[in-house]
Amino acid sequence: MTATTQLRIVVPTEARLSRAPVIPDEQVINLTIERDEKLLLSVIEAAHRLGVGRTLMYELMDSGQVGSVHIGRLRKVPVEALHDFVERRRLLAECQSPASQPGGAPASSTD
Questions:
Q1: What number of other Cβ atoms are within 10 A of residue 43's Cβ?
Q2: Of 7, 15, 60, 99, whose CB count within 10 A is highest?
Q3: What is the C-alpha to C-alpha distance for residues 48 and 37, in angstroms, rounded to an integer?
Q4: From first to last of its 111 residues, what are the pLDDT tens digits of the chain?
């Protein structure tokens, strides 16, 4: 889906207060917004989505933590592989939290 709109730059001036502003065409900005609906991302795009660097992204893929596919010489990351990775990390964090361990939260020491 693509949406295009025009924005006009309006600088407040005293003249503007007394009458309707006249905005020259050179102050018009054309803005196009596209939804990103790619199924496969480049390694850089995937790293950007996760908020990590390119090197760490390659490490995650090499270790099998994040799935990837080869298309010709290119290595691409399925969007779903990023969602799966984040979900596994979230579940792992929940399982390792002290509140989820048998016996509940860690006991506080009182002397």
A1: 19
A2: 60
A3: 15
A4: 566 676 666 666 655 555 655 656 666 677 777 776 889 999 999 999 999 999 999 999 999 999 999 999 999 999 999 999 999 999 999 998 776 666 655 555 555
Residue indicated by tokens 């924005």:
7
Residue type, 27: Q
Nearest Cα to Cα of residue 42 among 88, 78, 89: 78
Residue pair 49/60 in contact by the 8 Å Cβ criterion: no
DSSP 64-93: TSS--EEETTEEEEEHHHHHHHHHHHHHHH
**What is the distance between the alpha carbons of residues 100 and 59, in angstroms, rounded to a whole number?**
29
Q: Any idea where the domains of the chain sit in the sequence?
A: 40-88
Whole-Å CA distances, 64 to 19, 77, 85, 104: 65, 12, 10, 33
